[in-house]
Amino acid sequence: MQGRENCAPVTMLSFGRGRLSIEPSAMRYIEPHGHMVSRVTDDYLDMVTAGCAAVCEPAFWAGFDRGSVDGFFDYFAQLTEHEPKRAAKFGLPHFTWLCINPKESEDVALAAEVIGIIPKFLDRPTVLGIGEIGLNKNSRNEMKVLEMHVDLAARHHQLILVHTPHLEDKLKGTRLILDVLKGDQRIRPERCIIDHVEEHTVGMVLDAGFWAGMTLYPETKCTGARAIDIVEKYGAERLWMNSACDWGVSVPLAVPRTALEMRRRGHNAEAIDRLIYQNPVRFMNQCPKFKLAEG
Ligand SMILES: [Zn+2]
């Protein structure tokens, strides 16, 4: 762990009549994939208290299919206007990624309309790239929409954040996604993060030169213990951990809690800091708009 000057700034918060100075823990981390629009404001407070220095929010499925392009326009405005303001109340920089999620990609005509409005938002100061794109059921239409997103990212020189399918579709879907990305000569793998990797997909992602994200879920995807096993096996050169913290069963503090488990298993403070802070910063810094609060 580095000196105090590199830690998140002390945050002053009002509680009733008094003011409480909250000293973040010695731990610092980035939440590189958190769906904050579905969380309550108290989660921001808990994250900052645990040492969160920035949160990055990919566009995702709302739990229902939006019926028109107008729904996405409002969602992108929420991600780029309202949510950064809510996070800023706690001194927390908030960034975002834009796309139509794979779950809503069956309607290719709607997807094309949504992809058509994304460039209107790409110049906004907190937009890091295109994401989370990818596949859900590995269908033909999802593949079409994935290719449209990759083309959009390439034309606008955007970073890419990829969602990989769940359970039995994951291995095949990850292969298909990597083939699309590798097949486009304009795409550089070090500018793409393939998220939700598990034991059977992380190797192929890292071997192809991409970054890999491990999503810490209490029930599905990757538990903290399994994520640490993966780090111990593959090293932490191009890996990060995130909580996803969406509207389903998920834990906004999954990253710092897993860091505590790493400490218990003998990982030193520098190795933990590299995985949960320096790595996401290194990846996100490829977008010049990514900036942490002065501290
Ligand atoms: Zn997500």
Describe this structure in words.
The model is unreliable at 1-24 (pLDDT under 50). Helix 3 packs parallel to helix 5, helix 5 packs parallel to helix 6 and helix 8 packs across helix 9 (254-264). It is built from 10 helices and 10 strands. 40% of the residues lie in helices and 17% in strands. The protein is globular and about 50 Å long. It has helices at 41-49, 69-88, 108-117, 119-122, 140-155, 170-183, 202-207, 224-234, 254-264, 269-284, and strands at residues 11-15, 18-22, 29-31, 52-58, 94-98, 127-134, 159-163, 192-194, 211-215, 239-242. An 8-stranded parallel β-sheet has the order 3-4-5-6-7-8-9-10. By secondary structure, it is an alpha/beta fold. Helix 5 (140-155) links the parallel strand 6 and strand 7 (159-163).
Short characterization:
The protein is an alpha/beta fold and 295 residues long. Helix content is 40%, strand content 17%.
**How much helical structure, as a percent, in the residues?**
25-40%
* Quaternary class: single chain
Q: What's the average pLDDT? A: 91
Helix and strand content put the structural class at alpha/beta
Question: What is the terminal-to-terminal distance?
Answer: 15 Å
